[in-house]
Here is the input.
Amino acid sequence: MKTDFTFDENLITGVCAGDEKTFEELVARYSARIFNLAFGLTGDRSVAEEITQDVFFTVWQKARQLRNKEAFRTWIYRITLNLSKEHFRRQYRRKGLIDRMKPQMDRQDNTIVEETGVKERLNAAIANLSAYQRQAFLLKYQEELKISEIARIMKCREGTVKTHIFRAVHSLRRHLENEKM
Amino acid sequence: MRKCRFEKQLVDYFFGELKPERKSIVEEHLRKCEGCRGWIDAAYKISSMYSKIDLDEPNLRSKILNGIPLKQRCFRKRLLSYSLMTGIAFAAICGIGLFQKTTDIVTHFRLYRDLEVISCLDRIGPLVGQNAEAPND
Here is the structure.
């Protein structure tokens, strides 16, 4: 989907004014993207759904605080990353496991798209990436954002984003070689 | 793979974000560096293998829109409980402070009163002594 920033700006202005119809339009425009990103980050459908709901709740509540309306896309992705992190933090606190930053790759949820072979193993490899590498990888490969946008979302330098992506591809390559795909 | 100074430029090159004037330099490097060539090949391979996770979630929109009033109620409830807790904590701190201040004032007052009594006694003392000596004269 090509992003029309002016359209986004108009939508967010409407949301700031408390217009529910505009908000519905905003949800229609971004919900699938946010859900897919949250699913990519967490690997759990129900958690992704909850995160998506929380993201839009935050948007509805805090839209007025967004000073630069043009940066809406960056803002909504950042909220998604923060809420995903918060989910892992809560999970870590609850279960006390060290390596909970990895998504639950057992993926016992049968409703998930049935992937077999290569794709499944690639997703497993993505789940094994570090949290930052996975974020940078998904934002680039899935959301097709520019490096500069990813840097703003992840609040780091562009060079750091590039390093994360480089290392992510490198470790995926190693993983695929080990799997002899 | 050993660290190569071109790795950040490779990312830009692969995603088409490299400045045109740098493109030929990276391509020249790729001819020489096997490691970087391997990285580019892997990036292409992953790109072809990776299909965007595009889950079909038919009720997502309605779930979000219906969930918001509920979340709003929960949020208000949480906000209310936080405000209440903050209020209680503030009242407790004020209460303790007030109690300490009152105790200080009372102690001060008692001390002042005792000093007054002592000074009175000091003043009265010689007079009492004179009066006591008077009958002997």
User: Anything to note?
Assistant: Residues 60-133 of chain B form the longest helix (74 residues). The mean pLDDT of chain B is 82.
